Amino acid sequence: MQTEFRLPALGADMDAGTIVEWHVAPGSRCKRGDVVAVVETDKGAIDVEVFVDGIVRELLVPPGTRVPVGTVLALLDTEAAATAPEKVQVPAETRAEERAAKAIAPRVKISPAARKRALEMHVDVASLRGTGPEGAITVADVERVGLTSQPSPAVAGEGAAGMRAAIAAAMSRSKREIPHYYLTTTVDVTPAVDWLAAHNAAVPVTGRLLLPVLLVKAVALACREHAGFSGFHRDGRYDESPVVHVGVAVALRGGGLVAPAIMDTADKPLAVLMEGFRDLVTRARAGRLRASELAASTIILTSLGEASVETVLPIIQPPQVAIVGAGVVAVRPWIVDGNIVPRHVLTLSLAADHRVTDGRLGAHFLARIAALLAAPAAL
Amino acid sequence: MNREQMARRVLELLTAIAPDVEANSVISGVAFRDQFDFDSMDTLNLAIALHREFGVDVPEADYMHLASLDQCVAYLAERIA
């Protein structure tokens, strides 16, 4: 059976992307979950996975072409995958090695800024010799080669301006369509801070945890117990997501942000969440996110503590219905058992969709997150 | 390894954990946080990278000594010596 492989939607704020490179060719066999193409979008370069097992029949969109979401990028033969004899394929070990190499090594070591510049200047990054650390290609390397080429109007829309436009579109839609209500509560997180310090002193450096990971887990567990916060509002109705994928807002250093999801957040132990979080932040900033991660979040956690703000009143990312904010952890005078004592406190906030829940339900949800944080060892 | 080699290696580790930072734009005496919004995740990743590369275990209480390239090199020189 022939299956169309289309450019997937990557959330509410992306409507087009530019094919940067194909990882497959006609005749290549691919498995569900394999990354088959790299697409440059307003959110950086995204690895796009295929969702069926199959053999590539034809690639319809050449690299360098900007196409809208939903465009058929390639045709796959899905029946052939089950019946095609192994002998027409490359020997298994070779393919496995190639796949492993692809999975581990970035194809070309290149900074996101340089990748964007290369795309703008129509420079083939594979032909460049990098002069940066570990042979990484820098903006200067691209410009040295590409100065003679003309910038292409085909890729206008990507880059920082494109991301700003995408965020503007999504947030305007959110403010237009979603009747937000906002709740905040200041929580004594001293137990979590102490628990983290003790944990981190007792494990090797690679096993250390960060506070946002506790927050992510607490949000996920609270979503499981309180309906109406983890799901999607589409076409006038709300559907609770059967699984909780907490998205983490990651600020990009050049400006802009993305909120990729840590999949199945509620089921994972803290160490696994930490690994996932670390991996997402690194890849978000390197422009190596996967399409599935960008579209999967059922609720987002945005933590602005690094910027020393006390309270964040976030905007919901449609079609989601809630977003949790966390400010800075600060030492403040607090009253414990009638005495004024210094404690680590954190202001948590919730922006939620009034079409789905009311303030009272939101208050219960936020209080549950706070209670979970108070017992960090149980997370 | 002299200080210059050490600084070069730390810079390589830095741009490996923060791939959106251009190596030749890093100013050695200025805090990473002030140059490119270095956050707690970056600091932890740097501590892990220094551990792998130099075998130095940086306790959380010492993170403040990793604030800039110059400080990293000074801290490493002291810990390795």
Oligomeric description of these chains = heterodimer
Give helix and strand order of chain A, one letter per element, not per position. EEEEEEEEHHHHHEHHEEEEEEHEHEEEEH
Measure the end-to-end span of chain B: 11 Å
Query: What is the typical, i.e. mean, pLDDT of chain A?
Result: 84
CATH class of the largest domain in chain A: Alpha Beta
Number of strands of chain B: 0
Approximately how much beta-strand content do the residues of chain A carry? Answer: 25-35%
CATH level-four homologous superfamily name of the largest domain in chain A = Chloramphenicol acetyltransferase-like domain
Low-confidence stretches of chain B: none
> What portion of residues of chain A is helical?
25-40%
What distance lies between the first and last C-alpha atoms of chain A, to the nearest angstrom?
A: 46 Å
The major sheet of chain A is characterized as:
7 strands, mixed
Overall mean pLDDT of chain B: 91
Strand content of chain B: under 5%
Quote the CATH topology of the largest domain in chain A.
Chloramphenicol Acetyltransferase
How many strands appear in the DSSP assignment of chain A?
Answer: 20
Walk me through this protein's architecture:
The complex is a heterodimer of chains A (379) and B (81). Chain A has two domains: 2-107, RNA polymerase II/Efflux pump adaptor protein, barrel-sandwich hybrid domain (OB fold (Dihydrolipoamide Acetyltransferase, E2P)); 178-378, 2-Layer Sandwich (Chloramphenicol Acetyltransferase), CATH 3.30.559.10. In chain A, 32% of the residues lie in helices and 27% in strands. Chain A has helices at residues 78-83, 92-104, 112-121, 139-146, 159-177, 190-202, 211-225, 270-286, 291-296, 359-374; strands at 2-6, 16-22, 29-30, 35-41, 44-49, 54-59, 66-68, 72-77, 180-188, 231-234, 237-240, 246-248, 250-251, 257-258, 261-262, 289-290, 299-303, 322-326, 330-336, 339-353. In chain A, strand 19 (330-336) and strand 20 form a beta hairpin. The longest helix of chain A is centred in the middle third of the chain and has 19 residues, at 159-177. Chain A starts with a strand and ends in a 5-residue tail after the last helix. Chain B has 81 residues and is mainly α. Chain B has one domain (3-80): Non-ribosomal Peptide Synthetase Peptidyl Carrier Protein, Chain A (Orthogonal Bundle), CATH 1.10.1200. Chain B has helices spanning 3-17, 32-36, 40-54, 69-80. The radius of gyration of chain B is 11 Å and the shape is globular. The model of chain B has no long low-confidence stretch (mean pLDDT 91). Chains A and B meet through helix 6 and helix 8 of A and helix 1 and helix 3 of B.
